[in-house]
Amino acid sequence: MSGSPDQAGPSHVDANSSRSVHFKTDLLQILRELRASGSRKFWLALGFLVLGGLTEGISILALLPLLQRLVQSPEDAAEVNLGVDVGGLSFPDFTMTLPGILICFVGLVVMQTLFNRFKSVFLSDLLYDFSNRRRLSLFKALGSTRWDRITRMPLSRVEHALTGEIERISLCGFCLLSIIQSLVMIGIYVGLGFAASPQMTAGMLLFGILAAVFMRPFRKRAALFGQLLQESRSSQFRTVSDFVGGLKGARATNSEDAYYFTFSDLLVRNKADARTYVRYEAMGSGIFQLMVAGGAAFFIYASFIWLELDFARVAVLLVIGLRIAPRFLGLQGQVQQLLIDLPAWRYIYNLEQSLTADRDDSIRNGVNVPPLKDGIKLRGVSYGYEGSKTPALNDITMQIRARRITALIGPSGSGKSTIADLVTGLIRPSQGDLLFDGRKLLPEEINGWRARIAYVSQDSFLTGGSVRDNLIAMTNFGSDDRSLWNALEQADAVDFVSALPHGLDTLIGDRGVQLSGGQRQRIALARAFLRSPDFLVLDEATSALDWRTQERISQTVCRFAASGVTVLIIAHRPSMISFADEIYALDHGRVVEFGGGEELLTRRSGAFFDMMVKENTTVPD
Ligand SMILES: Nc1ncnc2c1ncn2[C@@H]1O[C@H](COP(=O)(O)OP(=O)(O)OP(=O)(O)O)[C@@H](O)[C@H]1O
């Protein structure tokens, strides 16, 4: 593992050596990733960029010999010999008419425009492929990371990486390609310059290198700004996501201002950082331009006075110099921009690495698992969450019999959901055995086992979109209306869905915000029923329902069990589970009581009876 995403924080900004190592590794990784679309595409993109640079203003250059001739002898304008010899660079003898030259000029402009269009589309494709590949592999990494790892990480970080920082990755790729283009262009111009005057060109090159060294503090500043920018964007995203996620609570408690102040404070700091950087950067560009102007004056003086070069040679050197100088300036800008965006690359790369390092191997190579025959057994199972002092489950022995209803009850934090996570294969026991039909599942079977499960949690997660979209998400069914209505019927949701303005096709807002809590739960239940599971897990899935609706759901659950489905119900309320075949009462991660509903109610000193009384449920005399 190459480190956590947190390692990209400002505390590391001063670590020069590690930064330069990171810098090189990052560049190599970006290059490798750019080439992942195919080496041919990569080299073509570079070729197009260099060609684009070389042909910049080529149409104007085509007119130069013509203008030179016109100035020297205007009467020869009807037919012009394009052969020239300027400062050591010669064009061969070639005669053309004036209209011919002008048509060529327009033709060149057309070709250049077409080429630029093609080049832009090609580059855009390459860069999209580049950033999309990272986006998809991060997405995939999240989907295949071990569940216990996911529960420990702030998911807003992944969301931010996938939706915000990823855009900066594209910029990293583009900057790196542009840097290579600038270096190649500088190389070409230096080569041409050597043909005109080796001493002067060597001098220019030396001057460029000195200027690059001089600009080092400005590049360091860019790297620092990049880190600050990344931190600030991440904090902004977290604040917005907290605010949006808890908007109702914030509005109801009048605490929008607290979010507003935090957010505006972040924006002010962000602006201050940007302003400091822009000032510094503008000063750097100014100094660089002054250096170029001073250097040009010095070169002209040295060419004429010390080296006594003729005017034509000096003119060529000047033209070359004037093309190299902006390249140097551009190079400096590109490197700075790359340094600003590089933290985004490192952030995403580290995040993906750390997710991949905790990959749940069972997610790959899914092997089909037969339906349960006997059931699931937990034998002396303990489970401790990482970092927790006390285990969530302590030496649990219990059985979930096939085609029966098993219920877990107990106070909050007693370990009920942890058992559900174990039997659905999301986590593995720290100690003890978890046996499916008498044997442990092989890692590659867990995926196949999950395909047989329908799980409704207390959060009843819905997506945006319509009722139909939510029902068919996570099922292998098409949009066969009859099965959808049938599932809704089983979840006692027909009445309210029929009353929605567009029935099944009514949009229910982000995460079903336009429905009541109980309606959301019923859609989630219908979605689970639609899956035709072999193993149905309801974890507080009816907590928001009134007793009458709950009773109808209980009847559905009993019908499911009668038709061969194994059911695990988790509830706080004893009334929701009294119909279960077996009930396990948990407390502090241990089974404190076990038996059938009727049987437990007769134990007047038992935990289950105690819970029923506290819930004010009518108990038999
Ligand atoms: N991701 C986690 N990281 C650390 N500890 C956890 C995590 N999830 C649960 N726990 C702890 O494990 C214990 C059992 O939690 P669990 O969610 O299984 O209880 P529960 O009986 O389902 O509670 P509730 O009825 O409130 O949902 C609790 O003490 C809880 O704090």
UniProtKB/TrEMBL annotation:
Tell whether S-adenosyl-L-methionine is among the UniProt keywords: no
Where are the membrane-spanning stretches? Answer: 42-64, 96-115, 169-190, 196-215, 287-305
Q: Boundaries of each ABC transporter domain copy?
A: 376-613
Tell me which residues make up the ABC transmembrane type-1 domain: 43-307
- State a single Gene Ontology molecular function: ATP binding
A single Pfam family it belongs to is ABC_membrane
Q: Does the keyword Membrane apply?
A: yes
Keyword annotations from UniProtKB, A to Z: ATP-binding, Cell membrane, Membrane, Nucleotide-binding, Transmembrane, Transmembrane helix, Transport
Q: Membrane topology for this entry?
A: Multi-pass membrane protein
Q: Which GO terms describe its cellular component?
A: plasma membrane
Protein name as annotated: Heterocyst differentiation ATP-binding protein HepA
Source organism (scientific name): Palleronia abyssalis
Source organism phylogeny: Bacteria, Pseudomonadati, Pseudomonadota, Alphaproteobacteria, Rhodobacterales
